[in-house]
Specification:
The strands form 5 sheets. Strands 12, 13, 14, 15, 16, 17 and 18 form a 7-stranded antiparallel beta sheet that branches. This protein starts with a helix and ends with a helix. It is of the alpha+beta class and 642 residues long. The protein folds into 4 domains: 124 residues, Beta-Lactamase, CATH 3.30.450.20; 112 residues, 2-Layer Sandwich (Beta-Lactamase), CATH 3.30.450; 192 residues; 157 residues, Heat Shock Protein 90.
Length: 642
């Protein structure tokens, strides 16, 4: 058999267990390679177990003395870092977690001179335990600090194993941990207990949203209802059996009450809208889906209007046509157009429903999200069926009136023309022999009658023009006209009237202004403006100015008369409107209406600048050549003439 000492030495040197032998002074006498591998270095000669600050700090030196007294001892697990020692300096070493078994080595006499330390590296185990402990601590902090009411119930009797601080506060500080659910919270709803037992039985997760729980939360006799979002999660043991439930509860009372308030406001608003006589429809922005219709709208539809139906189906559900009778597709329906952001302002459509056929005038507005309500498109509309019927009858009456005026004007014009010619003949006879008895007796009367006949003829012509305008029979005959020459002709013709009104008619501006206009209608425009200036500016000069600027002729007629108020300026160009009382100034109020119509027919504009007591200036602007087919025809005539 080999030398036993050699066998022991080989076992010591090659053992995977780190060993070190220390003498009674604590100096290391021997260590194996496993020791050096674990610590990173061997203890230097000056190292002593009994001067080791870490050993002394943890009270292990007492255990070491017991080993020298012949006892085998086991040290607790400690973290050990040689670099932390003060009485020696070691740079190459590892920080490790170790536990040691110390046993005595006695000599032949039985005296213990040395002790052996067998080391166990438990660094990985200790780090794992510390990590687990840290994870548990973090989880506990999470459960205790989370804004959730959390509890853990174990067993079929649903006994509290954990309750978060928030849950305890919500339940008035009741003692929960270790108690049964029904004992700790005796007023809990039975269906909630049943729900928890079902989770224990089935092992399936259960979620309850906005669960109304009515209990004495503070434990002081005051019962109230609060709303919760609950999540019950089953817990399983090692065999996969359900042995507990963890419940996460989040209070949503404020949100639920706020939504209830919004819903109450919504119902109140709908009740108010139902009392309104005006039909109102609400639709979703973007989609155009109708979400509400009031009673007035339902009556027109012939029953409850379909809501929350896909907008693509509206083309079949709603029969809507334009005023020409063409049916509108889903994308052209008022709700769809308004939902796309188009603002409707009096859109007129025909709605064919079970209750009848209605003409509607539809508007739209977008109400932004506010007070908990989402954005909504509002479509109020008016049933203007009767108005349209009345409008049609009025249009028919106006047409009959215009036809009557046209016929009457023609019928009146013929005898007036004959009478005017006869009076002109008498006037010429009086001028030819002013000294005759007849001229002496009748010349002034004939002159007065002729003025009245001409005035009556002007009124008849005005009515005839109005009837032509109303019936669309106002035709223009374009030709080359010199505006300056035409103005001078009109001014010369008004010379006698200007003398009677004690006015001077002054013509100024560009010498020649040639354009393509209807001569007779342009002369009528100038005549009406000069006549008005003489009528309202009597006793003051009337100034007529003509000019050309940027391809447009401008005619300006200025009087220094009574002026026109700002309110009257907005209406004097309308039919039968007057700026002053007809008691002081005669006429039918048609002159400026006809003038405006003629100017606009020749593609021009007319406006007035005036103030009360400061006179008035009427300005007419006309293009030198009309646009469109008329301009082409005039150009062709010019080419043929050349």
């Amino acid at each position: 058999m080999s030398d036993p000492l050699a066998l022991l030495e080989g076992l010591f040197l090659h053992s995977p267990v780190p060993y070190a032998i220390f003498d009674r002074e604590g100096h290391c006498r021997l260590s194996n390679p496993a020791y050096r591998a674990m610590f990173g270095s061997v203890p230097p000669p000056e190292y002593s177990l009994f001067r080791d600050e870490l050993v002394a700090k943890m009270g292990l030196d007492l255990l070491l003395h017991r080993a020298f007294e012949g006892e085998t001892v086991q040290t607790p697990t400690i973290w050990y870092d040689v670099k932390e020692l003060q009485h020696i300096e070691v740079t190459q070493a590892h920080r490790i977690a170790i536990s040691c078994t110390c046993f005595p080595l006695a000599c032949d006499a039985g005296e213990v001179q040395y002790i052996a330390l067998a080391y166990k590296d438990v660094t990985a185990e200790l780090m794992a335990r510390e990590a687990e402990h840290l994870e548990r601590r973090r989880l506990y902090q999470l459960l205790t600090k989370a804004p959730l009411a959390i509890d853990l119930l174990r067993g079929q009797d649903l006994r509290f194993e954990f309750a978060s601080p928030l849950l305890k506060r919500l339940l008035g500080g009741r003692e929960l941990v270790g108690r049964r659910l029904l004992d700790a919270v005796p007023d809990i709803a039975p269906d909630l207990v049943t729900l928890c037992l079902n989770v224990m039985k089935t092992g399936e997760r259960v979620v309850a949203r906005e669960y109304a729980l009515t209990i004495d939360y503070a434990g002081k006799g005051h019962v109230e209802t609060r709303y919760w979002n609950l999540s019950h999660e089953p817990l399983f043991d090692e065999q996969g059996r359900v042995d507990g439930i963890v419940t996460f509860a989040f209070e949503v009372t404020e949100q639920v009450l706020a939504r209830h308030a919004v819903e109450h406001q919504q119902r109140w608003l709908e009740a108010v809208l139902d009392l309104m006589p005006m039909p109102v429809v609400m639709a979703e922005p973007n989609t155009g889906v109708i979400t509400f219709s009031n009673d007035a709208a339902d009556r027109l539809y012939g029953g409850p209007m379909p809501t929350n139906v896909s907008a693509s189906e509206y083309g079949e559900i709603f029969h809507v046509t334009d005023m020409q009778g063409r049916r509108l597709g889903p994308e052209l329906l008022p709700s769809a157009r308004a939902a796309r952001g188009e603002r409707l302002d009096g859109m007129e459509v025909m709605w064919h429903t079970k209750a009848g056929q209605f003409v509607l005038s539809i508007c739209s507005e977008v109400l932004p999200a506010m007070h908990g309500h989402p954005e909504v498109t509002l479509l109020p509309f008016l049933d203007i069926t009767r108005l349209k019927s009345v409008e049609q009858r009025l249009q028919d009456a106006i047409r009959v009136r215009d036809e009557f005026l046209s016929v009457a004007s023609h019928e009146l014009k013929t005898p007036l023309t004959v009478l005017g010619l006869r009076l002109q003949s008498f006037a010429r006879a009086a001028l030819a022999d002013p000294d005759s008895d007849w001229a002496q007796r009748h010349a002034r009367d004939v002159e007065g009658m002729l003025r009245q006949v001409m005035r009556l003829a002007d009124l008849v012509n005005g009515l005839l023009d109005v009837s032509r305008i109303g019936t669309g029979r106002l035709n223009l005959e374009y030709e080359q006209v010199d505006l300056r020459a035409l103005v001078q002709e009109v001014a010369a013709r008004f010379q006698p009237e200007a003398e009677r009104a004690e006015c001077d008619v002054e013509v100024s501006g560009t010498d020649v202004i040639v354009g393509a206009w209807d001569r007779m209608r342009l002369e009528q425009v100038v005549t009406n403006l000069v006549s008005n200036a003489l009528k309202y500016g009597a006793g003051h000069p009337v100034r007529v100015h003509v000019e050309v600027e940027e391809g447009r002729a401008r005619l300006r007629v200025r009087d220094e008369g009574i002026g026109i108020s700002a309110e009257a300026q907005a209406r004097i160009f309308h039919k039968f409107e007057r700026a002053v009382s007809e008691r002081n100034y005669g006429g039918l109020g048609l002159g400026l209406y006809v003038t405006r119509t003629l100017v606009e027919a020749m593609e021009g504009v007319i406006h007035v600048d005036s103030a009360l007591g400061a006179g008035a200036t009427f300005t007419v602007e006309l293009p030198l050549c009309p646009s469109g087919p008329v301009a082409v025809a005039i150009k062709a005539i010019k080419e043929l003439a050349s």
